[in-house]
Design goal:
Layout (H helix, E strand, L loop, with lengths): L1 E4 L3 H12 L16 E4 H24 L4 H8 L3 H8 L3 H51 L3 H13 L7 E6 L2 H15 L5 E7 L5 H12 L10 E2 L13 E7 L1 H27 L1
Length: 277
C-alpha cells in the first residue's frame, strides 16, 4: 500500500537520519525535498506517531501557558476530546482548568452586571412611556363606564403590593366578570388573564371551577390550581369560594397606577367645583 504525505523540513531531516542508520531498513536520499514522499504503510504509521508526538508537545506548552482546550484547538486543530485524554490526569492541567473557571465566572458576573445596567436603563424608559400613554389615553377613556368601573374595582379590591401585575379577589361573580371585561377590552390581552380559586376543604373543586368559568367567561385553561383554607366559622361558608383574577404586566401596572391617580384627581376636583358653584 502506497500513500502520499507532506511534512516540514525538520520531520524529513529526522526521518532521513533514522533511515540512513538502517533503523527501519529503508534509506531516504540525503537532501530530499521536504514536500512530498511516497511511503509504505509501515512508514505512514511511524510518521503519524511522530506528528502526534510533536502536536502533543505543542499542546502541552500552550496548556501550561494557561490556554483552554478551545483555544488550543483553534490554534493547533486538535480535537478537545483528544486534549482532554492527554491532560485530564495531570494535576497541573487541573489547576489550569480551575483558574480558567474562576476567570470565566468573573467575566460572567461582570457581563451580567453590564446587561442588568443596560436592561435597567431600557426598562426605565419603557415605564416612562407607559405612564405617558396612560395620561394620553385617560383623556378619552374617562368617559367609558367600563374603564371607570375597572379602575375603581382595582382601586378598592386590588392587590397593590405586586410591581409586575395586578390582582383582584372577590366572591361576587358580577364584580369579577366586570373586571375580566375591563382586562379584555381595555388591556386587550385575554391570553394573559389567569384565575384561581380559594376554597374550603369540603367544597368540590370541579363544581366551583365550572361555576366561575361560566360567570367570568374565562376558559378552563385560564384557571390555575385551587387553594384550600380552613375557615374560622364552620357555618359561614362561601358556596363557590373566592375567585382571584390576575394580569401579569408591569407595563400595564404602571398605566393602572396613573389611571387611579388621574381618576381620583378628576373626581375630587369635580366635586369641589360643583360645591363651589
Amino acid at each position: 500500500m502506497v500513500a502520499v504525505q507532506s511534512f516540514d523540513a525538520p520531520v524529513v531531516k529526522w526521518i532521513s537520519r533514522m533511515a540512513s542508520n538502517h533503523v527501519l531498513g529503508v534509506r531516504i536520499p540525503p537532501g530530499a525535498p521536504a514536500v512530498c514522499f511516497l511511503f509504505t504503510q509501515k512508514w505512514m504509521g511511524v510518521l503519524f506517531y511522530i506528528s502526534m508526538r510533536r502536536d502533543k508537545e505543542k499542546a502541552e506548552k500552550l496548556r501550561k501557558l494557561g490556554k483552554s482546550y478551545r483555544e488550543i484547538k483553534a490554534e493547533l486543530g486538535i480535537p478537545r476530546t483528544t486534549l482532554s485524554d492527554w491532560f485530564k490526569n495531570h494535576s497541573w492541567s487541573k489547576s489550569v482548568a480551575e483558574n480558567l473557571n474562576k476567570g470565566y465566572q468573573s467575566q460572567n458576573k461582570a457581563r451580567i452586571v453590564r446587561l442588568n445596567r443596560v436592561r435597567g436603563v431600557n426598562l426605565v424608559k419603557l415605564y416612562e412611556q407607559a405612564r405617558k400613554e396612560a395620561e394620553e389615553e385617560f383623556v378619552t377613556l374617562k368617559y367609558d363606564p367600563l374603564f371607570i368601573s375597572g379602575v375603581v374595582i382595582y382601586w378598592g379590591e386590588g392587590d397593590k403590593a405586586s410591581k409586575n401585575g395586578f390582582r383582584v379577589a372577590n366572591s361576587d361573580p358580577l364584580m369579577i366578570r366586570v373586571f375580566v371585561m375591563f382586562l379584555e377590552t381595555i388591556c386587550g390581552d385575554k391570553q394573559r388573564i389567569r384565575a384561581s380559586l380559594l376554597l374550603y376543604p369540603d367544597i368540590n373543586d370541579s363544581i366551583c371551577r365550572s361555576y366561575w368559568e361560566e360567570q367570568t367567561g374565562l376558559s378552563k385553561e385560564s384557571f390555575t390550581k385551587s387553594t384550600y383554607i380552613k375557615g374560622k366559622h364552620g357555618s359561614r361558608r362561601l358556596k363557590y369560594g373566592v375567585c382571584t383574577v390576575s394580569f401579569s404586566s408591569r407595563y400595564l401596572k404602571e398605566k393602572m397606577l396613573v389611571w387611579i391617580r388621574l381618576l381620583s384627581q378628576t373626581l375630587v376636583s369635580g366635586y369641589i367645583n360643583a360645591a363651589i358653584v
